[in-house]
Amino acid sequence: MALAFNGTTDYLTATEPTYGAAGSWLCWFKSPSFSQFAKIFDTGGSNRSYIQVSDGERQMDFVVGGASVFGVQFLFFEYDTWTLSTITWDNGGASPYATWYKNESVFDTRTSTFTVTSPTDTLYIGRRLTAANYWNGDMAHLARFNRALTAEEVAGVYRGGSIAALRPTTYWPLNGAVGAAALSPDLGGSADNATAQTSIAAATTAPIQGRYVAAPAFWAIPQAGAAASVVPVLQASLKRRRSA
């Protein structure tokens, strides 16, 4: 399931996470129409972080910890279509220092470094920090990581793989209707449950459907000891193929 934000009053709040030199944000979203500056999330304070729809139709931009990592991304999404947006960065690595994925493909990269400053403010899911720019549409599986996800991991999520198995720092599935003041649980490692400020209805569709259901088996393996566990799974698969 997913949450259907009404574009006028629906939002949740949580604690703004601490950022490091490397990290990732990902989210599934769907919107039926253009709504200028509508926010998937936003934070308060001087070191704001947000993902928003930009000036023109189907454009988006991304700011994290006060750094404008990506400017306007033209024609990033289609209306009434589930899109997986994943943004990764690593200022301690090699260029590109940030990558924006649309679904499982690279949409843009950044080749210059930037400074991320951690704020200590409220995270607003589905609206601007002030009571404006509400998200109009559906949203599911909002997650943040303290490392840059790999292209293979992004592709795995797009194909229906487990987000929790990638050990996110914070992860709100947003996978069902919530009442006012009810909690949307954090399935990551921060215990930062999001609180619904209004009653938000369940969406009629969800991204983990159809082609996204057929995930590779190894994506369901728990992250702890995953590297050691994948080997026998692959060996067993190869053995079956040889004996077929």
Description:
The chain is mainly beta. It folds into two domains: 3-213, Jelly Rolls; 217-244. Helices cover 11% and strands 33% of the residues. The strands form two sheets. Strands 1, 3, 8, 9, 10, 12, 13 and 16 form an eight-stranded antiparallel beta sheet that branches. An eight-stranded antiparallel beta sheet has the order 7-6-5-4-11-2-15-14, with no helix packed on it. The radius of gyration is 18 Å and the shape is globular.
Count of helical stretches: 2
Mean pLDDT across the residues is: 80
String of helices and strands: EEEEEEEEEEEEHEEEEH
What is the correct CATH architecture of the largest domain?
Sandwich
The CATH class label of the largest domain is Mainly Beta
CATH fold assignment of the largest domain: Jelly Rolls
β-strand percent reads 25-35%
Number of domains: 2
Structural class: mainly beta
Shape: globular
Could you describe the largest sheet, including whether it forms a barrel? 8 strands, antiparallel
* Assembly status: single chain
Annotate the secondary structure layout:
Elements: E1 3-6, E2 12-15, E3 22-30, E4 39-43, E5 50-53, E6 60-64, E7 67-73, E8 83-90, E9 98-102, E10 105-110, E11 122-125, E12 136-145, H1 151-158, E13 170-172, E14 183-184, E15 194-196, E16 201-202, H2 226-243
Antiparallel strand pairs: 1-12, 1-16, 2-11, 2-15, 3-8, 3-12, 4-5, 4-11, 5-6, 6-7, 8-9, 9-10, 12-13, 14-15
